[in-house]
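Hi team,

Filling in the usual template for the complex we talked about on Friday. All components are listed, including any nucleic acid strands or ligand strings, so the model treats them as one assembly.

SUBMITTER: L.P.
PURPOSE: interface mapping
COMPONENTS: two
RESIDUES: 958
SEQUENCES:
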Amino acid sequence: MSATAPTNADVAVSGPGPGEPSAPAGGSGRRLSINLRQSGIYVAFALIVLLFSVLTDGALLQPQNISNIVVQNSYVLILAIGMILIIIAGHIDLSAGSVVAVTGAIAAVLMVEQDVPWPLALLITLVVGGLIGAWQGFWIAYFGIPAFIVTLAGMLLFRALTLTVLGNQGIGPFPDPVRTLANGFTEGYLGNVGLGPLGGADLFSLLVGIAAMAGIVVVQWRSRVARLGYQQSVEPLPLFVLKLALAGVVVMTVVVQLARFKNLPWVLILLAGLILAYSLLTNRAVFGRQIYAVGGNLQAATLSGVKVKSVIFWIFVNMGVLAALAGIIFAGRLNQAGPTAGNAFELDAIAAAFIGGAAVQGGVGKVVGAITGGLIMGVINNGMSLMGAPSERVMLVKGAVLLAAVAFDVWTKRRAGASR
Amino acid sequence: MTDDILRMRDITKTFPGVRALQEVSLSVRQGEIHGICGENGAGKSTLMKVLSGVYPHGSYSGEISFDGEPCEFSDIRDSERRGIVIIHQELALCPQLSIAENIFLGNERASRGLIDWNRTNHEAGELLARVGLHENPVTQVSDIGVGKQQLVEIAKALSKRVRLLILDEPTAALNDRDSAHLLDLLRGLRDQGITCVIISHKLNEIAAIADRITILRDGRTIETLDPTSDEVTEDRIISGMVGRDLDHRFPPREPRIGSEVLRIEDWTVHSPSQHGRVVVSKANLTLRRGEIVGLAGLMGAGRTELAMSVFGRSYGTNISGRLVKDGREISVRSVRDAIRHGIAYATEDRKRYGLNLIEDIKRNISAAGLTRLARRGWVDDHREYQVADEYRASMNIKAPSVLSVTGKLSGGNQQKVVLSKWIFTNPDVLILDEPTRGIDVGAKYEIYSIVNRLADEGKAILVISSELPELLGLCDRIYTLSAGRVTAEVPRAEATQEHLMRYMTNGQADHGDARTTSDDPGPADGSGRPSDPTNGQE
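RESULT (copied from the run log):
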């Protein structure tokens, strides 16, 4: 070591200069606003559920209705998972609805007309979805055409392809396993148990619910312990317990209601798996991190060695596969692949992502947020139709909610920018 | 004096953390050509932005009077109404519109809301004749060369009844013939009573054309030279530009220079936007272990282009030359290759190219070395936190935690995050492009200490800087770059600011062949100018 007389310590003594604001005093006001931006969506969701529960005299939370909300919105939620990744990267996909239609049609032709065994047909359909995504990803990532244009073209192309494949008529019915996946419920493997005044409920469903809850608690606790081990700051224990308790109550309420009706819908299990997998991907995987880097600052990501083009390509492939999955489920639920299937689904998925806190400029968003955004719209749809509201009023409210959510996002960002 | 058309008094303008102008005064006489000289960052462009209302009244302190009347411009239109027109270094033409449409943009020749095309094209033709441009007014701007586009800008200014014309580096992208034509035109305009303020790095041009020259340094007015009373030579201007005492403090260091790490041989880079333009020409550089090497050059000399082209071909097309690392030739075709071969590049524009401002410190630090924190594609986020926190401590990043968003940090702390990011990739060669731009003095000292520490650890460091004292205080050896060519290699012992400045400015006239001729049509994409990453805020 050479003689480095004045070291960092000397500078530290001179303290932060005028242009060097010292560690921003983590004022409680600021922390609160940050929390509001991150958790505002969940608070809003809770309020909306509460509102419609009151307005519908509790009909919203009836066992059968909860089951309906999950099953009716499952395909949009699946699309929302793929869409949020694309939006985080700063792109958009307008073709998702048409891809849902064409993959549903292909699945129908394979299973109904060609008598391909259903597992194979399912696999082929997913691969076709991936190829469609690769086609669009190629033009966007490697040819440099804006995603808006490529997927707008895709919206027309794949709708045309749907009509061609179907010969302008519906094809059905689907084999039973596919219908069960889309529309069915788990069997009462372990029989029923009595829940006092709530009546009988499916034991298997309850056990799955308890296992899921235990899983959440264990994962959260281990992460907390690990953080403490690395001397990172964690939220105070009472708050931690309160949050887990709240999550537990929500999960168990839903599960108990479902167990009282017809057990767990298969799509709910599928969705839970997808949410878990994609949350992990976005939080923990190198690939997921690179999606945020690309959307946050494309140039900085490029200069940090991220293979930007490949990242963009693969999120579109992923979107294609998820759209195919949604296509199969949608067709299976209707028990028929129709020419108008999936109409405007992409718009619902995009709205879900933005209501769920994605930023218009990219770089920000969460899988769970998009799912919550999708559920908000689902609850509004469902709640208003329970109240007998005409569809134009439902549309009006959904439009207002979307605008308000994005306005809130822009507003918080502008305030944050002003204080910079 | 009564014949001053413009008087600016005690102009002070501060940006967060930086004082760009400090009590600057400037007076310009009616009907003269007034040159403004200064190093990059001396405050020239800022001063002109204050004058033209880009920075509105109230965002600076001091007084401006034009024609004897005080001025409080709130935007550019305000100043243009008074006859002050600024032509920026980046031309503000719409490439897809015709010459005539550009000239009258925002100032359309119309009656009752409908454009009178005959009048538009006729008047445009007259203006083109005045600036000596023989082109049809309906020609699309993207179809003419950069030199001619500059003339269109001047015609546009004339259409606004300009009284004071400000040109910011008008000849930077022009070849010698176009430059000469432009300077002749300015003399002609002067004879018609139009006052000109011209900012230029080309001191020979300034010395030749200006009636008086004001020199800025570090945001202050140093002096105004008048050729009628002073003897004005390029050397005289240079000594005014750099004659600053070395009162900056640099942490002491005893260099222990080892073996050669990276050799750049015959490195030639072409502009990606201007076909055929050579940006870096046959450059040869050597970097050694434990050595801090400087790269000096004025704006547009090709410093950043050189660095970025070496860093995985992030800039430029048709790159030729060899990179020899530890005695073996390496192929670096992407940023990933560069990182794998132990080359790191911290960009000059932190906010645009260096950081993801909406993400936290932790994720920015891990951005380039994420695979080192991952196993089979999964990131160990606890270790990530730990690593980031270690850098927060060792680099003295002032933030409540590594979960703070980088967009909220000061410039100095942002720079420390960028440096941490690259140090984490464990490079042998670190290229630092303007590492202290926009950073206050205390934080600069910290950055210098970090750079010294890295050199002591045996890394080879290449520092690009516009501040000559910084290079002199920090580096063991300095290369000068002018118009894309390495013009000198100077050991610290022999280096003085005057010496370096001469090599940084002189090369340009001698190596005019590095540029294309005026007949070369503009770039196909119509951008008019090369997308020069060095054209940041001055």
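MY TAKE: Chain A has a mean pLDDT of 86. Chain A touches chain B through 52 residues (CB under 8 Å).

Thanks, L.
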